[in-house]
Amino acid sequence: MDQNYRLAIFASGKGSNAEAIIKYFKQHPSITIELIVSNNPQALVLERAKKYGIPTLVLNRRQFESEIAVKLSDYQITHIVLAGFLWLIPPSLLKAFPHKIINIHPALLPKFGGKGMYGMKIHQLVQSSNEKETGITIHVVDEKYDEGEILYQHKCEVVSEDTPEEIADRVHQLEYAWYPKIIERWILNRMESS
User: Fold this and answer.
1) Which of 26, 63, 77, 121 is the most exposed place for a label (fewest CB within 10 A)?
2) What does the domain layout of the chain look like in residue ranges?
3) What are 5-59's pLDDT values in tens digits?
């Protein structure tokens, strides 16, 4: 089955995960990164996209809620990948892309998930809670923050001397190593089974 899958990456910040995904799929036979969407006109991810010749779209909240599905259809997007995107996905987009939006969360859900739980805040909580392990969770996006079906988790150790920055570095390495592979598996396995 020669089908092409066209991804949009949604990101609000630096875009290091987005760049890892872009690199991974650069020569892929059936999956391409077609668009970077951001809610932040200053986001570094926009510069990264430019470096790889990928079109970008910056939307305010009103545009995001009312125009995003149409804009994605203009690019013939088949799947959406959230990579540090901080807004809740509106119901209209969930309906337009059923089970075709995934997110990565820098902790082992259901711990340290929910609204406002992102970035360094999570790693500080992991450290101050004396957790023995943390990691990443890749999950399908639904109408609530961090509550969709879990597709994959990968753990790493936390030791008492770790700073939040050291925890963050370890978790970032897991994100770069695993997120692109799980995206590929999710798309291709879903398609084979549907």
Assistant:
1) 26
2) 5-193
3) 999 999 999 999 999 999 999 999 999 999 999 999 999 999 999 999 999 999 9
Quote the pTM value: 0.94
CA atoms within 13 A of residue 65's CA, in its CB half-sphere:
6
Tens of pLDDT, residue by residue over 74-106, are: 999 999 999 999 899 999 999 999 999 999 999
Residue among 102, 191, 112 at smallest CA distance from 149: 102
CATH code given to domain 5-193: 3.40.50.170
What's the pLDDT at 2? 58
Is 79 catalytic? The answer is no
Distance CA 32, CA 22 (A): 8
Could you tell me which residues are beta bridge partners of residue 140?
102
Cβ–Cβ < 8 Å for 173, 17: no
d(CA 31, CA 130): 40
- Which candidate in 105, 123, 139, 172 is catalytic? 105
Does residue 194 carry a pLDDT above 50? no
From the DSSP assignment, how many helices (H) and strands (E) are in the chain?
6, 7
